[in-house]
Amino acid sequence: xxxxxxxxxxxxxxxxxxxxxxxxxxxxxxxxxxxxxxxxxxxxxxxxxxxxxxxxxxxxxxxxxxxxxxxxxxxxxxxxxxxxxxxxxxxxxxxxxxxxxxxxxxxxxxxxxxxxxxxxxxxxxxxxxxxxxxxxxxxxxxxxxxxxxxxxxxxxxxxxxxxxxxxxxxxxxxxxxxxxxxxxxxxxxxxxxxxxxxxxxxxxxxxxxxxxxxxxxxxxxxxxxxxxxxxxxxxxxxxxxxxxxxxxxxxxxxxxxxxxxxxxxxxxxxxxxxxxxxxxxxxxxxxxxxxxxxxxxxxxxxxxxxxxxxxxxxxxxxxxxxxxxxxxxxxxxxxxxxxxxxxxxxxxxxxxxxxxxxxxxxxxxxxxxxxxxxxxxxxxxx
Length: 382
Description:
By secondary structure, the chain is mainly α. 66% of the residues lie in helices and 0% in strands.
């Protein structure tokens, strides 16, 4: 097994390799959190940071951006060196799932070196990171829509349709029930007064999108299936809920307790759940290259011994690269000049509008896939 860490790896080890990259990404998130919330006083004695637009700014938002920049460079290097890898056993395949001492050393250096980069460069990176984080959200959106279609078509396949009828009925029913419950609770908790016009609009428009998707999916020429629409509806209701919960504490229409900066049990659990959600979203999106990367060509019958890679290495690292930008935006609330409270994540009006826009885009993409299937008879992204 020792040779696996320096050279090529066996085919059976290529799938677990992804978890090592996810762990590296998780540790980067944890370091960014510590730097943002607990390292201001420790770094304030270092002369290098005295001119960094003020110590507090440098070690809060800018400190996160520096670590994000290092993580981005790490996965960008992995992307450039593995993109286009098609077969197991080659040099790039070995680099992807081996050479761990060298890659760990590279990661450690990239966690340190960005703190010696001029602030002006980090500021430019922060602006670029907004765009990169948006790219990540779009990729995630297409991945979720593709997964919903795949799940629906898998259960509707002739060999599964009979035994999967009841599970499909249960999943569809629960999806719509949770959607309705979520909408009612949002009206009660987040729109208690007629003056809460913005929240009322957000929730009501989510209901309109839900009904529109369902009606389009039921059209005889579409026949997308209620389960697919139910799953996407559940996703957009979640986005609406998450967007309203990201509103600043000064927003009086939100009657629920939110992130206060105090280390109470609920806040700490919510923070770490959010952290795990970031890593899981990046990992699951990177592992699903079907909507974006063409399938491997059929192997030559005369070369049956050639084994294709089980997933797209390049796409996997690309997602983690833009995911590095995404976690930075969550840690600073999409506002490069905002000082976040301790134990808080993705809070502020910028975060609200990013999530709402993502919700509307998700509904639009799903409706487009249904309508385009009528025109071109093709629904799958791949």
